[in-house]
Amino acid sequence: MALTGLQIQKLLPKTNCRECGSNTCMAFAMKLAAKKAEIAECPYASEEAVRVLGAASEPPIRGIALGPDGTLKIGEETVLYRHEKTFFHQTALAVNINDTDSPMMIEKALKAVRDYRLERVGEKLQIDMAAVTHAGEDIDGFARLARKVWETTRRPTVLRSSNTTALKAAALAVKGSRSVLATATPETAEELRVLAKENDHVLAVTAPDLDGLFRCTSKLRETGFQNILLQFQTTSLAEEFQTNSTVRRAALKDSVKPLGYPFLRFLNNSTDFLEIAAGAITEIDKYGGICVLPVFDPALMATLMTLRLNIYTDPQKPIQVEPKVYPIGEPRSDSPVFVTTNFSLTYFTVSGEIENSGTSGWLVVPECEGMSVLTAWAAGKFSGVSVAKFVKEVGLENQVSTREIIIPGYVAQISGELEENLPGWKVLVGPQDAADIESYMKMLKSK
Ligand code: SF4
Fold it and tell me: Which of 25, 26, 38 has most ligand 1 atoms within 8 Å of its beta carbon, as the pocket-test mutant?
């Protein structure tokens, strides 16, 4: 169980020396209880306190590292809602391949997993994993396909079979990839634990209900094995939503350690893409660790990745681009100069629309703490004074010969102040909406 501030305070030296940055030991204890500090910040904590609090501060959801170098991480979450802090490790998206699929289908899926790229607000997104399902009878064929998937994609793979002999063959075939063996039941858990441990893979565990799953993972934990994923047996979207939420809450709020592991979900194959999308969206929104899609569809993948990017962005830290002057296209010294803020979405929208308008120009992006234009202006981070200061600091006047600068239409009110602080420059008020840049540039050229 999580310790309260009062319980933690009893373990601290109670000297109120302030070296941890808190005014009192009690204040520090409250921070520890809220998981906003670590016991290591108190240099005088006893060994007993470190031991007790170390165990209590173990992440409520265990982090699981996948892939040969462990770069694909899932779990290690500490909050129920992203506005409380942030979600750390996004739901890994995988595409399933059946060993009974035609060679053409297999090649198509492999190519998608290996080559798919989506660029969104400067982030290059790709498919995290493939899954191989043993849908036929051929054990060697399943293992060969697992090997082929691993060699082609070089991504960790989810190996799925109800046949332990087939899982053994596949686990050996992809040894070194730190993949997932799916799925152990209470009857096969011990045998597959040994297999996962010997081959350095992660083991997904299931049971007909949460009590059974709790007992199964408790037994695995007793052996010291912790590379566990939970797979729930649910029959509807509502049950998926409810079970994911219940287990996450139990792990976070009640410190139920045997349920403190990331989830693995295989979505059912369906001809209804909305049904697949609803299942995947539920996983991304509600705590999924790995979500295996039954097929690859580019529109679905782009939708899910965009949603995931939004959910797994720290809400307290807007995505920002580096403040500087960006060349758009191939600008010359007399090309037009635009200005906007360093909020990533704003930058990519504006730069994209300048490019789409067929204009080469310079985009001045001052430091605005990642806020959008109106927010930055309202917060005093995007004013005539601050833009002028930035223009001077980056030496724009030496870089370009033009003395016209186009500001966003939403902040027309800073034009006077900007002209005052940038002597010799003429401030032009651009469109409010980036989508109107093209027509605005046409209008400028026609003058
Ligand atoms: Fe108390 Fe330790 Fe903080 Fe000092 S450093 S105030 S002893 S918790």
Answer: 25
Quickly count: other Cβ atoms within 10 Å of residue 55's Cβ: 10
Counting ligand 1 atoms within 8 A of each CB, the residue from 8, 9, 14, 15 with the most, and so the one to mutate, is 15
- Kindly report the pTM of this predicted structure: 0.75
For 427, the 3-state DSSP assignment is strand
Q: How far is the CA of 211 from the centre of ligand 1 (A)?
A: 41
Dump pLDDT digits (tens) for 306-333: 999 989 887 777 788 899 999 999 999 9
Is 422 strand, coil or helix? Answer: coil
pLDDT in tens, 23-37: 999 999 998 887 778
Radius of gyration of the chain (CA): 27
Q: Which of 112, 115, 118 is nearest to 131 (CA)?
A: 112
DSSP 8-state symbol, 320: B
Taking each helix axis from N to C end, the angle separating 273-285 and 237-253, rounded to the nearest 10 degrees, works out to: 10
Half-sphere exposure of 211 (CA within 13 A, CB side): 0
- Residue 338 has which token pair? 């635009």
Q: Which amino acid residue places its CA nearest to atom 2 of ligand 1?
A: 42
Q: Residue 373: which of 352, 350, 353, 356 has the closest Cα?
A: 350
Query: Would you give the DSSP letter of residue 41?
Result: G
State which amino acid sits at residue 3: L
